[in-house]
Design goal:
The protein has 176 residues and is α+β, with helices and mostly antiparallel strands. It contains 5 helices and 4 strands. Helix 2 crosses helix 5. The chain starts with a strand and ends with a helix.
Length: 176
């Protein structure tokens, strides 16, 4: 009989607890570690399992870096945000340009967003160009956020199905 209890799983991973370790942590098995490990992976191992102490696991669960701030915005709201960002960038550029003229370029060189920086990023270009650039970036970010949210929901669906199976199995065991 297995001592593992699945928390969730997916195509290339399995997250579980193991009663043999006294439930002091969770275990993460990566079946294709090259897809998860960015540096130092030799490609020779087909599976990697790591134990995550329970305190670390609880901390990780509460601190997700996921950002869904654009996921629910409409196209009109994305456009308004792109316009607002373009207007803010243009105002910042005008301020730097005025400051540079007053100080003959000396203060702009020390400014964290110096004129060279704003020129590289296109703040000196037309408002329409800036809006188009911002709109594309925001639409791409929204697309990524929606894909991430979908992937997270799919993992959650696996977890809910596994919990339901665990409950049914527990009822069967206790009914005997």
């Amino acid at each position: 009989m297995s001592t593992k209890s699945t928390i969730t799983y997916g195509k290339d991973f399995h997250l579980y607890t193991d009663y043999e370790d006294g439930l002091t942590g969770v275990w993460l098995q990566l079946d294709q570690p090259g897809d998860f490990i960015a540096a130092g992976y030799s490609g020779k191992t087909t599976s990697v399992t790591l134990r995550i102490p329970l305190a670390v696991w609880e901390h990780l669960r509460q601190h997700s870096p996921a950002d869904y701030s654009l996921a629910d915005l409409t196209d009109a709201q994305i456009l308004a945000k792109a316009e607002l960002e373009a207007d803010e960038d243009r105002a910042r550029y005008k301020e730097l340009l005025a400051e540079s003229k007053k100080t003959k370029g000396k203060s702009a060189q020390r400014h964290p967003l110096g004129l060279a920086f704003v020129r590289i990023h296109g703040y000196h270009r037309s408002r329409a160009w800036q809006i188009e650039r911002n709109l594309k970036r925001l639409q791409d970010q929204r697309k990524q956020q929606l894909a991430l949210r979908t992937a997270v929901k799919q993992v959650g669906n696996h977890e809910r199905r596994q919990l339901a199976r665990n409950r049914r199995n527990l009822k069967k065991l206790t009914a005997k």
